[in-house]
């Protein structure tokens, strides 16, 4: 038998071994990439038309529906409990040390509904200048509280949180506090809350409050606006959607054309004549996720319909469930 020289075999063996090793490395890299893609937090799409946010079973409406009551009030509560609506985080009910658990529970609810989580952070010192929703934290406590919220929201990146930061905080600031100090606190809160899948909106007031140029000046005091998506309009108010869309475009232009808007349409289904505190003729507005353009990301229900604005027009204290108000807001729904 003729022997084959060893030198004639080794190069081919080496090439085969190299190819096998290379394939193994590529396969391992592909596996790692797949694992990272599955578990690594990814930036979610911006809010837009068609979005659905959580309708929490812990809302005031849900609690009122579970409690029962008169037929009209119960129908209103049951209807409103089913509507996707932002959840308000306030230190009185979601204090430091507990708010992270609250967010974790809300995120679990959102996953069960294949929805995104929308929250309102509302705990700024002297938050509404001692009006109907007085209170809030001191500066040090606020920094700790918002830091805990930010950590919890980043841990819930898969539900792409939408955050409305301190409604009325800037639009109202010149009436009661040093605007620069408040803007600095809000800037610190922004730093605490930002995340790769968190969409953050500052207070933008509304179309019947500050001229757009003036409101833009207030927003700009918060500092680097590249940290936020934009501003929220009409929160807890009743202005018609068309007016707010027009104002959003003007305000965005004043801010350089880079920022976007959310509009609260929870209670603006009728012209309230400029009245902001429990106006008698108010109606629920368009469901969330029904509008959007190049400036307005979309609309959401931000202030929960059925909760009072304060001790006015027969309402209870601000934030309390008001059966008569809920019934009135949904009267056309009930008629259908």
TrEMBL record:
Parts of the chain that traverse the membrane: 17-40
Keyword Metal-binding in record: no
GO BP, one annotated term: cellulose catabolic process
Catalytic residues as annotated in Swiss-Prot or TrEMBL: 128, 168
Family the UniProt entry places it in: Belongs to the glycosyl hydrolase family 6.
PROSITE patterns found in the cross-reference section: GLYCOSYL_HYDROL_F6_1 (PS00655), GLYCOSYL_HYDROL_F6_2 (PS00656)
Gene name of the encoded protein: cenA
PANTHER family referenced in this protein's UniProt entry, alphabetically: 1,4-BETA-D-GLUCAN CELLOBIOHYDROLASE C-RELATED (PTHR34876:SF4), PTHR34876
Protein name: Glucanase
Residues covered by region (Disordered): 316-336
Organism field: Microbacterium terrae
Database matches in SUPFAM superfamilies: Glycosyl hydrolases family 6, cellulases
Sample GO molecular function, one term: hydrolase activity, hydrolyzing O-glycosyl compounds
Enzyme nomenclature, EC number: 3.2.1.-
Keyword set, alphabetical order: Carbohydrate metabolism, Cellulose degradation, Disulfide bond, Glycosidase, Hydrolase, Membrane, Polysaccharide degradation, Signal, Transmembrane, Transmembrane helix
């Amino acid at each position: 038998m003729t022997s084959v020289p060893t030198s004639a075999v080794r190069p081919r063996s080496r090439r085969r071994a190299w190819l096998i090793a290379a394939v193994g490395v590529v396969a391992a890299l592909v596996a790692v990439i797949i694992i990272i893609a599955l578990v690594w937090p990814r930036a979610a799409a911006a809010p837009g038309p068609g979005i659905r946010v959580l309708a929490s079973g812990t809302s005031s409406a849900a609690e009122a529906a579970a409690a029962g009551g008169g037929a009209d009030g119960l129908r209103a509560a049951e209807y409103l409990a089913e509507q996707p609506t932002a959840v308000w985080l306030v230190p009185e009910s979601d204090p430091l040390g507990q708010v992270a658990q609250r967010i974790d529970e809300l995120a679990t609810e959102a996953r069960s509904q294949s929805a995104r989580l929308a929250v309102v952070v509302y705990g700024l010192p002297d938050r509404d200048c001692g009006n109907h929703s007085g209170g809030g934290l001191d500066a040090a406590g606020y920094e700790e509280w918002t830091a805990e919220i930010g950590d919890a929201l980043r841990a819930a990146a898969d539900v792409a949180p939408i955050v409305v930061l301190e409604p009325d905080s800037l639009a109202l600031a010149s009436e009661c506090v040093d605007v620069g100090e408040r803007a600095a606190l809000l800037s610190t809160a922004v730093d605490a809350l930002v995340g790769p899948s968190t969409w953050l909106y500052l207070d933008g007031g509304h179309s019947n409050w500050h001229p757009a140029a003036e409101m833009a000046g207030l927003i700009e005091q918060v500092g680097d606006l590249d940290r936020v998506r934009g501003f929220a309009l009409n929160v807890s108010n009743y202005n018609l959607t068309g007016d707010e869309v027009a104002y959003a475009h003007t305000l965005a232009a004043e801010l350089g054309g880079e920022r976007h808007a959310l509009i609260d349409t929870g209670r603006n289904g009728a012209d309230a004549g400029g009245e902001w505190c429990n106006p008698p003729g108010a109606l629920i507005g368009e469901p969330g996720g029904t509008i959007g353009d190049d400036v307005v990301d979309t609309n959401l229900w931000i202030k929960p319909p059925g909760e009072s604005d304060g001790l006015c027009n027969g309402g209870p204290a601000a934030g309390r469930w008001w059966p008569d108000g809920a019934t009135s807001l949904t009267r056309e729904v009930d008629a259908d």
